Amino acid sequence: MSSNTAPAIEDARLSKFEERVQKGDAIEPRDWMPEAYRKHLIRQISQHAHSEVIGMQPEGNWITRAPSIRAKQILLAKIQDEGGHGLYLYSAAETLGISREEMIEQLQTGKAKYSNIFNYPTLTWADIGAIGWLVDGAAIVNQVSLQRTSYGPYSRAMVRICKEESFHQRQGYEIMAMMMKGTPEQREMAQDAMNRWWWPSLMMFGPHDSDSPHSSDAFRWKIKRHSNDELRTKFIDKTVQQAEVIGLTIPDPELKWNEATGHYDHGEINWDEFYRVIQGNGQCNKQRIAHHKKAHNDGAWVRAAAEAYKVKQAVKNN
Ligand code: BYC
User: Fold this and answer.
1) Do residues 115 and 203 touch, judged by C-beta distance below 8 A?
2) Which of 182, 176, 166, 142 lies closest to 244, judged by CA?
3) How far, in Å, is the centroid of ligand 1 from the Cα of 160?
4) Ligand 1 pocket test: which of 42, 51, 205 has the largest number of ligand atoms within 8 Å of its C-beta?
């Protein structure tokens, strides 16, 4: 092979890859892909998986304090779904050549992020309503868009996850609606939860488009189909109406319908808070990671037993 052949082959593969992405073909694990595309996806999918798993903690905090057996069953089912979402996503990331152990290590050492939203405490039962309604509501808007992402395993995981998230969003809205029909104290509790979760939910969509370093590659490769700001606006438009129906006030005095754009304008997001939280200095970051490490270490015997069983079966079948 001449010294010029290898770069020529690489260029041809890249053009073919980009052509397929432009056509809207799904890229599959065995297909050739540029290294930067692979790395971009590993970063995003693993962070998405970590968010699902860490997101079980703030809600798990209320399992023993759910106000009825019905509420407890629903909450348990929802939290188990989140664990399942983590598993689909870790599996999707593994198809890109990273192991589960490496991903867990990146989470526990702070190399990989997880969603800003899970670093806030759940102080009252209304927070469980607010998480389902606002946090899962924001997640759905983002994930519906990701159903059409270019990487096949990620896109397919999203289709399944979205079905479950819509049940999560409804159960949260039901909690908030019930509390708003309750006593003055319950209404106050629901409004307080709304006040604390609204702004961090808007931050879930990431920085403004002009400050989003990964967006240009994400669009070029059709990993993202809508921008951070587009999705944030979509979420606001739909949620304002839902809040009005049950009598909750959005804690943003600058929120205003804009006839010209056909969307709501909103007040400035506190980006200092966002960056502080995603850099590990939010209210609950240390607690979340400490809890993850403990649960992971406590579960070591389960992984060892599963591995031993797998080896035993392989020996038996040979
Ligand atoms: N939180 O260039 P950008 C759920 C980081 S869980 C933390 O815009 P990108 C649920 C970003 O990673 C659903 N970090 O990035 C579970 C980057 O830093 P790195 C979670 C954030 O990737 C349990 C830097 O800021 N959903 O539903 O183009 C119970 C620059 O950002 C955040 C997902 O994970 C954030 N919010 O766009 C209940 C969705 N935003 O990586 C519910 C999948 C940004 O260079 N992810 N950063 O260190 C995505 O769609 C995209 O990754 C994002 C960010 C829109 C989040």
Assistant:
1) no
2) 176
3) 19
4) 51
Band (pLDDT 50/70/90 cuts) for residue 9 is confident
- As a residue count, the chain comes to 318
Task: Give the Å distance between the CA of 144 and the centre of ligand 1.
Answer: 15
- Structural contact between residues 193 and 130, judged by C-beta atoms closer than 8 angstroms: yes
Tokens (6 digits) for 63:
């399992």
pLDDT at 195: 98
Determine if the pTM surpasses 0.85: yes
d(CA 68, CA 302): 32
Phi-psi region of 134 (alpha: psi -120 to 50; beta: other; left: phi over 0): alpha
pLDDT in tens, 21-79: 999 999 999 999 999 999 999 999 999 999 999 999 999 999 999 999 999 999 999 99
Tokens 């860490």 sit at which residue? 54
DSSP, res 250: P
Task: Kindly report the number of other CB atoms within 10 A of residue 118's CB atom.
Answer: 26
Residue whose CA lies nearest to ligand 1 atom number 10: 52
Q: Could you please report the per-residue DSSP string of 109-148?
A: TTSS---GGGGS---SHHHHHHIIIIIHHHHHHHHHHHTT
AA identity, residue 203: M
